[in-house]
Amino acid sequence: MSERASAYPPSFEYVEGWGMVEGHHSRVLRPASVEEVQDDLEGARKARVSLALRGAGCSYGDPSITRDGHVLDLTRLNRILAFDDESGVVEVESGVTLEQIWKHILPRGWWPKVCSGTMFPTTGGALGMNIHGKNNFRVGTWGDNTLELDIVLPSGELETCSREQNSELFHAAIGGFGMLGAICRAKLQTTRIHSGEIDVVGISTHNLGEMMERMDAQCSSADYLVGWIDCFASGDCLGRGLVHAAHYLAPGVDPEPEQTLTVAHQELPGSIMGFPKAQLWRALYLFNHDPGMRMVNAAKYMAGRLEGMAEPYRQSHAGFNFLLDYVPNWKWAYGRHGRRGLIQYQSFLPADVAERVYAELLTLCQRRSFNPYLGVLKRHKPDPFWLTHALDGWSLALDFKVTPKNRAALFGHCEEMTTIVLAAGGKFYFAKDQVLGLGDPQRFLSTERLEAFKALKRSLDPGNLFQSEMSRRLFGNSFLS
Ligand SMILES: Cc1cc2nc3c(=O)[nH]c(=O)nc-3n(C[C@H](O)[C@H](O)[C@H](O)COP(=O)(O)OP(=O)(O)OC[C@H]3O[C@@H](n4cnc5c(N)ncnc54)[C@H](O)[C@@H]3O)c2cc1C
Description:
Blueprint: H1 3-7, E1 11-16, E2 23-29, H2 34-47, E3 51-54, E4 70-73, E5 80-84, E6 89-93, H3 98-105, E7 110-112, H4 123-129, H5 136-139, E8 146-152, E9 158-162, H6 167-173, E10 182-192, E11 197-205, H7 208-218, E12 224-229, E13 241-248, H8 257-260, H9 263-266, E14 271-272, E15 275-276, H10 280-286, H11 290-309, E16 313-316, H12 317-321, E17 341-350, H13 354-367, E18 374-380, E19 393-402, H14 407-423, E20 427-428, H15 447-460, H16 469-475
Parallel strand pairs: 2-4, 3-4
Antiparallel strand pairs: 1-2, 5-6, 6-10, 7-10, 8-9, 8-10, 11-13, 11-16, 12-13, 12-18, 14-15, 17-19, 17-20, 18-19
Bound molecules: flavin-adenine dinucleotide (FAD).
């Protein structure tokens, strides 16, 4: 047995998607260096076993799990290699999380350009899916703010790529959902901030049309924009909710930047309304059914009406960006065992059709009695990555509860929504998907880009080493054909 194997043997574990509705027992390999990644690739090639790359496992569905192969978990590549506080460029190994990055750079007056709704994704996973934040309309995606990356190809070779060097690989691997190689290092641009707080304004809106109008009006000035939707409201109130627009503070506005730029100032409170936050999911569990969620959404809307009448307020960057992390393990409110959990159905639509189509989707959900328990609206802009989900338009993310009983009918409902979205020229996002079927990506990705991606996969990975449940679900076992 090699020294490494005895110190950190591969283990056999149950590995599931974040939404908990699918998981499989797999052998999990956890390399801690580029050399160990190369060893694991060589071992898998020799044993003719495929590998599913995995970061923190925060993708809702099945892109980082496999029933037929091993999981290559890259979270032990977790060192921050360098940070230049003149330029704001941070260099990290790919297992470094968003949380590690912001905690490292914030005290020096910098913040990640792009934050997902949770701080737990790794750099490799963020690049694999090319994640976006509430500021996508302004700064683009994680890939847009990446300067360079190293990737271990299926052959074991290490390639560096950027917009100038191996540009094709750079644009294909970012958003390439772990199909082309294991990203091991990246250089990222971060953004200068002059305070640990951000100015936030809440805008209560009566329906979807008003929400989109108010968000559009804020697009040229706000640094972040996000709309929360009460998906239970119907009729004239369909799509009612609350918009949050946030702005960075200009230099000199914060009287105490030394204090607000500390990690301690960002920490989320230990309790919420008296509940220790670690136990809060249990309280949410009690409301996790249609009548309960109707009440919670209505109460949130009423609170939003009050917020809309109040003055703008200041919030920490972590509090604003990682709201969902306020309630640890909140997903357990959806049930923890027996294929119970949640899916998020996030569709992207061109600006000119979005309002009509989202109204149709929300109405359809109500007609079919599949009410999303959470709805989130964002504004997006296109990016140059080959398999990108982004476009000049909007996305609406809808969270649905999954139980063994409703699963088949819910997935059928999603199929019905997918037909509507695709007919309207819409797109989907692999980080959130669990419901699309074989051949669906061909219906929304650029044919030219997809063909180029497949050609690159064939040339770099002729043995189809990198596979996942998602790759087989959407592209079949014959991804290479
Ligand atoms: C509560 C919550 C909120 C979220 N909010 C947002 C949001 O606002 N915006 C958004 O865009 N996303 C959001 N996400 C999704 C999340 O950001 C993405 O799924 C992200 O990819 C997760 O990163 P990960 O490290 O967990 O990767 P995983 O989920 O483990 O893997 C993601 C993909 O990347 C591949 N991969 C992983 N590591 C590597 C590597 N080193 N090299 C190459 N490929 C690799 C995997 O094979 C897989 O295809 C949210 C997720 C959750 C749970």
